[in-house]
Amino acid sequence: MSSGPSEPIALISDVHANLEALIAVIDDIRSQGIAKIYNLGDTVGYGPDPEACIDLVDAACQVNLCGNHDYAVLFEAEGFNPIAKKSVDCHRKIMRPNPEENDQEKLRRWMWLEQLEPMYEVQDFEAMHGSPRQPITEYVLPSDLETDPVKTSDIFSAMSKKVAFVGHTHFPGVMEDGNDSFLMLSTFDNYYRINRDNRAIINIGSVGQPRDRNPRSCYVIYDGVSVTYRRVEYDLEKTMQKIMANPDIHPACGIRLRDGR
Ligand SMILES: [Fe+2]
Question: Any idea what the CATH number is for the domain that residue 183 is in?
Fold first, then answer.
């Protein structure tokens, strides 16, 4: 099926309770004249401002999907490393409604987490947090191409569209079916033209905790034929300070922001 130009949309992921990054990215999206934003999940976890980030994506995004951290805040952090678990426990403690309190704001945010869907699908693409095979939890890693080609091929087979947008690894780039190399942003100068003869998994990177050694927030604009990656500077020192001041969040969650890892 061929697909042509369409109204541009922005796709964001892995905000991770980083309010400064989220505000900067939404400002950048608006400055591009883009009205629609799809959020691929992990709005919470790691950072200092889970509630404010939920309120902002709820107001700004047309689609909000469920990530593994969103799920873990609702149901416990199972299989998480100790640093990630600590922040999930912290966010769970802040946000879980206490039936005796009758706090309507808390209840509203909790119900927002509960209603998040694992996947979103339209005519020319599908989107999820993790992978087309396991939309909430599975990582599609660049190293899989070398170490686990069976996994990669099974994931491509699980796709129902030619294009899948994902987040989760916080490492932006593109994997094409039949291509043994993971395409990093530098290989296509932040502009990837979609070839619909082939399936592609497009990792859109992270707003709130980039891990490709570039500390600037990452998101994409998709217009039906191409994907443009945008990097946005934000006040990461402010986010770091908030993390350092919160004993329930591991300081490593702050330090890593400066290095983008
Ligand atoms: Fe994440």
Answer: 3.60.21.10
